[in-house]
Amino acid sequence: MPVYGADDRSAGSAAWTEHVRPRHAGDYCVATSAERTYDETSVVNRWNGIMKHHRSLLASSIGLAAPLLIGLGAAQSQSLTPNVTYNNPPTMPKPPGYTQVVEANTPGRILFIAGQLGYDAAGKLGADFRTQTTLVFENLKAAVESVGGHMENIVKLNTYLTDIRVQLPIVREIRDKYVNTAAPPASTTLEIQKLAREGAIEIEAIAVLPAK
Predict the structure, then answer these.
(1) Which of 7, 115, 126, 206 could staple 202 via S-S, CB 3.0–4.6 A?
(2) What is the pTM of this model?
(3) pLDDT mean over 18-33
(4) For the chain, first and last CA: distance in Å?
């Protein structure tokens, strides 16, 4: 442990100098309690003075910067629109009619659309599977347009079928009439035993829209 000797004080100084030397030869020696008290008090006083000065500078800086930051944030929320990218990495299998990875880097709105079945607005079920599938996509279109969006804003589809081998080709045919086939949404399709309501198809969706 370093110690301070009586001759380590500077004339006219309220604190001890930074020069440190041991009283005796050896690995270490112990300072007197008076020396420790004087040194610790001096260090604490200097530290408190430095911190008070830094806090004052920080408060002034925050006060000057806050209006600029608030203005910048408001401008961004009003001007930025969703930046959505569609990517099929070469390290993944090539997908048939959908996108493997959809990235939304956006402060915009995220729309979650409940599973849609093949019913029209009056609650009537489509007569056959093709009609039901068309009604499903019409319902998805109505949902996204109800908040000012378009089918191109849909980034994810989850499809539930009761007979995937027969039904999937029809779903793909009709789906391609509604989505952007150059940048189709990500997609998952499952075969299930039965839907919660009568029908043979249900599709839920996620869309990303510009901020209001």
Answers:
(1) 115
(2) 0.59
(3) 48
(4) 65
Contact assessment for residue 8 and residue 21, using Cβ atoms and an 8 Å cutoff:
yes
For 118-150, the pLDDT digits (tens) are 999 999 999 999 999 999 999 999 999 999 999
Strand partners, 83: 105
The Cα 3–Cα 191 span in angstroms is: 80
- In three-state secondary structure terms, 135 is helix
**Tokens 């309690």 found at:** 33
Backbone angles phi, psi at 26, to 5 degrees: 135, -175
61-107 residue pLDDT tens: 555 444 444 443 433 333 334 578 888 999 989 988 889 998 888 78
Query: What residue type is 201 in one-letter code?
Result: I
User: Token digits for 9?
Assistant: 């004080």
Q: In which element (H, E) is residue 129 found?
A: helix 129-145
**Residue 168: both structure tokens together:** 């999937």
Task: Specify the 3-state DSSP secondary structure of 109.
Answer: strand
Q: How far apart are CA 191 and CA 164, in angstroms?
A: 6
